[in-house]
Every structure is written in structure tokens, then in C-alpha cells.
Amino acid sequence: MTASSSSNVGARAIVTEPALSLRGVSKHYGAGAARTVALADVSLDVNRGEMVAIMGTSGSGKSTLLAIAGALLEPDSGEVSINGTRLKGMRARARARVRREEIGFVFQDFNLIPSLTVLENVALPLDLGGAEQSTARSEARRALATVGIRERSKGYPDELSGGQRQRVAIARAIVGKRQLLLADEPTGALDSVTGDAVLGALRGRADAGAAVVLVTHDARHAAWADRIIYLSDGRVADQLAAVGPEVLLAGGGR
Amino acid sequence: MSVKHSLMALLDEGDRYGYELRAHFEARTGGTWPLNIGQVYSTLERLARDGLITRTEGDDDRQVHYALTELGRAEVAAWWATPVPLAAPGRDDMALKVALAINAPGVDAAQVIRVQRLEVMRHLQEINRAKRASDSTDAAWELVADAMIFRAEAEIRWLDHTEQRLAASATLKPSVKAKPAPVDRTSDEHTEAAR
Predict the structure, then answer these.
(1) For a Cys-Cys bond, which of A34, A104, A170, A245 suits A30, CB 3.0-4.6 Å?
(2) Do A253 and B124 lie within an 8 Å CB cutoff?
(3) With an 8 Å Cβ cutoff, are B118 and A240 in contact?
(4) CB A25 within 8 A of CB A80
(5) Strand partners, A240
């Protein structure tokens, strides 16, 4: 169960918005005979502390969903909210700020800047946001520490292994106060052991309170998530909720 | 998996008592296959009968000590050198069921595949959780868990592949097209919204 709405600890009732909320989101590409529906009336909440995997064949709408969730693409209809802020009607500049300050992206090909050190790469979103350099650097160091790669902060991306680069990319995605991570096939180019380490790092972020959305075609990777959503022809075809502790006790664990 | 060869492989590392063999077996296979002690002793009796091990009564206690014979050592060496035979083909329940579904009148094969995939996915999620929850120094258990994880992944890939083949050849079974999927998506999303 994903308790999201409110926690009433004494008088300090804190209402927590989902980190990501999609309501009746639809999107199509093309027109006339070439018109294809990418997403049809998709609703989805992702809460902090939760990792959700999106699965589906190519063309099922996974990437469109991630692009819309990341404020990179506007839906034809429906509502998208990031940490309670509705994106609809927002100007491009404001939308860019939401993207920069609230959302972290992790892609298959890392997208690190080769001429910047690891630390500079991770600090970049904060630098672009106008943070003081010393603040940006210390936040970047903290983010690198959380993915276990702080000791490489002075190195350059091409001196790192694929798995290390992806962990740097995750650090960059979580630097600052961002609590929504969107990952698109983040283990694509990595061997299975390294891929598991990257998944472990994403899982660790969710366990530490971030909301993580993982797009993957790999069931083994989706299994790290609390919830798995199957898209088919732009619709949510199936959902698999978190495995309850009772199942754990009865089954797998020792 | 052969209990016989597993016990002999453990005896190849040193002579042992029966209860020790069981404890070692469970520790080395991550406890995923609990052996009962009766099974251990009956296997040991057969091995002794076939001249693969010797049994020695202890002096002061009643424990029986087991050791490999030369014949037994040769058998273990041959076992390590030989691949484990694969399961007989055509005995895969899941493949059989889906194969039947594809041509069964009035059966939505795509739905059969989806239901099966959710089940395997749930299993995969459980193993992943159990593995994460386990002591990371328990390499034996992790190895066995990985084996289960990769096997489940392969099953899901096969189901995905079959689903796509089915969709690509929609002419294969036109009769199922009209049947609505039993999953009520609207209520799913309302549940989702209420969270």
C-alpha cells in the first residue's frame, strides 16, 4: 500500500502530494491516416519513497509517458502535477524551472559532459539554477556520496566505467532538493552485474524518500520496483502492486 | 539436482557425520532446498551399498562417520566434469498451456499470457525483495536467487515474445478478437486515484 494522502502526527497534520500525478493523460502523434495514439487516458500517482516500473513493448507509450511526466512534452488532454504543482497552462520558462528544480533524469547513455569533472557534472543543474558555487559543490559531493562514488569526484567521465558513469548520472539527477527521478532504460548499455548495482542505487534513492519512475523492457529490472505498470497501446493494461510483507514471510525470504 | 552427488561432493572435501552433511548441504545451497535427515541417511545407505562410500562406527559415541571410496572419488570427478542434463523437452506446463490456448475455441490466448506473466512477475518481485532483504554476505543464497531471477526473466521474455507473435498474426485466431478483457481498468485507476 502506498499511503500518500496525509499523516496526522499530533497537531502537525502534513499533507503530502504525490511527487508525480497524471490524471487522464492522452497524447497522439500525427494526423489523419497517420494518427497514432501514444497515450490514452492514463492516470498514475507516484509517491515519495516509491519506485514504479513502466513496462510495455516498443510503441506502447512508455517513452511518451516519461516525457510527459518530465515536463518535456505536453499532453493533448489530462492533468500533470509535479509535487502538487499543476503544469497545465504554465509558461515555458516556469516549466523549465520545474524541470530543473524538481525532476532528475537518468538516460541510457548517461549524457555526462566530457569536459567537466564528475563533481562539476553533478553540480551543473544547481549552477544553472543560479546556486552559489560552494553550495552547489557541497550538494554535489553529498549526492555523489549517496550513490557511493564520491571518491571519483575529481575524475572525468571518460575515466570511469559504464556503471560508475551511470551512478554519476543518478547523482546529478538527485542533486539538490529534487525528489522525482525519471529513468529511461538506465541499464541499457551495462552488463548485468553493473546493471544490478545501478538498479540498487535507484532503489536506494526510493528507500531514502525519492519517487522513482523506471521505464524498462527488462522484467528483472522492473522487479526492483514497488509497483509495475504494463502499458499496451497507450493504456494501462495491467498493474502489479507491491508485494506485502506477509508474502515475503511465507515465501522467498529466510 | 542430485542429492546423491551433492552429498558425495561434500564428502570429497572431508569425512563427515550424517547430520554434518545435511548442515553443510543447506548452508552451501542457501537453504533453498531443505533436506530431511531421513533422506540423507537413506541416500548414504545406498551409496555405501554401491561401494561409493564407507561407513565407520564411532568409538565412544554412536555416530557414524562417512568417507568416500576411490570409486566414489572417481564418481564425483565425473559428476563435476559432466553437464547437468536439461529437463526433458515438452514438459513445460506454461508452454503447453499457451500452445493449447492459441488454438482453443473461445479462449483468449492473449489473456492467458497476461495472467501468466503477472504471476511470474510477482514471483520475480518476491525473489528480488527476499534477495535485497538478505544478508549480502550470503553468497550461496544470492547465487541461487540469481538463478531463480534469470529463469523467471527468461519466462517473461518468452511470454512477451509469444504475445507479440500473437498480435502480429491476428489472423491466427480471429474468434477471440471480440472478447473483452476481464480486467476492469476504470476501477483500477479509481483505486489508484484514491491512494
Answers:
(1) A34
(2) no
(3) yes
(4) yes
(5) A228
Task: Give the pTM.
Answer: 0.77
A179 Rama class: left (phi>0) / alpha (psi -120 to 50) / beta: alpha
Cβ neighbours of A231 in B, within 8 Å: none
CB A43 within 8 A of CB A24: yes
Report how far residue A132's alpha carbon sits from residue A134's, in angstroms, rounded to the nearest whole number: 6
Using an 8 Å Cβ cutoff, are B10 and B66 in contact?
Answer: no
Q: What is the ipTM of this complex?
A: 0.75
Three cell numbers, residue B21: 552433511
Q: Answer for the pair A198, A163: CB distance below 8 angstroms, yes or no.
A: yes
Which domains occur in chain A, in start order?
A: 46-70+92-251 (3.40.50.300)
* pLDDT tens, residue order, chain B (195 aa): 588 999 999 999 998 888 889 988 888 877 777 888 898 999 999 999 999 999 888 776 677 889 999 999 999 999 999 888 776 665 678 888 988 898 888 899 999 999 999 999 999 999 999 888 876 677 888 888 899 999 999 999 999 999 889 888 864 444 444 444 454 444 444 444 444
Taking CB atoms and an 8 Å limit, are A219 and B133 in contact across chains? Answer: no
For residue A178, what are the contacts with CB-CB under 8 A and spacing of at least 6?
Answer: A101, A102, A103, A104, A125, A210
